[in-house]
Write a structure and sequence with these properties.
There is one protein chain. The protein is α/β, with parallel strands linked by helices. The protein has nine helices and seven strands; from the N terminus they run H-H-H-E-H-E-H-E-H-E-H-E-H-E-H-E. Helix 7 (169-177) links the parallel strand 4 and strand 5 (179-189). It holds the Pfam family Methyltransf_4.
Length: 246
């Protein structure tokens, strides 16, 4: 389909940069995003200034004490590349018993989600404005996540750019190592070719099992975004994948 260059919330999603294909994950230093300039609105900047100190967790190369960060012990879900945060905020509002760690490098998106946190008094979200690979490697303990959300990542639709896509075997193996047994990973894309790659990569990961026969129905907790609604009106497809860690 004719993909909007931005993710479902209006910001281009994180994707791997090019690197030596044969190196290890650590030597590759893959990055889960593409650096891109963006203008921060006055409202977003005000949210960053006023709410950032409470809701933005500074990156540090050491395990975070998430129970202390959230002030409670609760199921924890990591979202990579939340864009402008509308979906994240809606899910967090509907699942008040769960905590959400949102990773996004683009400042306008961080400001937008902070603004939503303030407007809707969402105490169960924390934000990391940093590369997701380093966050996973250093700040998230193995076997600790109850869920992972990655919605509408950059499809890198040209064949020569497919290696930049975020969902690759090495990245998935790192992600799965941070999930609890029984934890879920939920992906969504509106590019059929990427959906096929996602299904292939997740199906090949021995630690995961598909909860559906192929693609999954959209779960009730994932809202339909404005870009998705527009695409569906035009007859475009959206593919959800829901796998669990064995």
């Amino acid at each position: 389909m004719n993909h909007d260059p931005h993710d479902a919330d209006g910001v281009e999603h994180d994707a791997q940069s090019e690197a030596n294909e044969d190196s290890t994950l650590h030597r590759r230093r893959i990055r889960s995003f593409v650096t891109r300039a963006g203008r921060v609105s006055p409202g977003q900047q005000r949210a960053i200034d006023e709410l950032g100190p409470r809701y933005v967790v500074p990156y540090a190369p050491q395990l975070a004490d998430w129970d202390a960060v959230f002030g409670r012990k609760a199921p924890r879900v990591l979202e990579i590349g939340f864009g402008m945060g509308a979906t994240t905020a809606e899910i967090a509002a509907s699942r008040g018993g769960d905590d959400f760690i949102g990773v996004e490098v683009h400042e306008p998106g961080v400001g937008a989600l902070l603004k939503l946190i303030g407007e809707h008094a969402l105490g169960n979200i924390r934000i990391l404005q940093h590369d997701a690979v380093e966050v996973l490697e250093h700040m998230i303990a193995p076997d600790s996540l109850d869920g992972v959300h990655i919605y509408f990542p950059d499809p890198w639709h040209k064949a020569r750019h497919h290696k930049r896509r975020l969902i690759q075997p090495k990245f998935l193996a790192l992600l799965v190592s941070r999930m609890k047994p029984g934890g879920y990973i939920h992906l969504a894309t509106d590019w059929q070719n990427y959906a096929e790659q996602m299904l292939e990569v997740l199906s090949a990961e021995p630690a995961l099992e598909n909860t559906a026969d192929g693609y999954a129905p959209r779960p009730d907790f994932r809202p339909v975004t404005k870009f998705e609604r527009r695409g569906l009106r035009l007859g475009h497809g959206v593919w959800d994948l829901m796998f669990r860690r064995r």
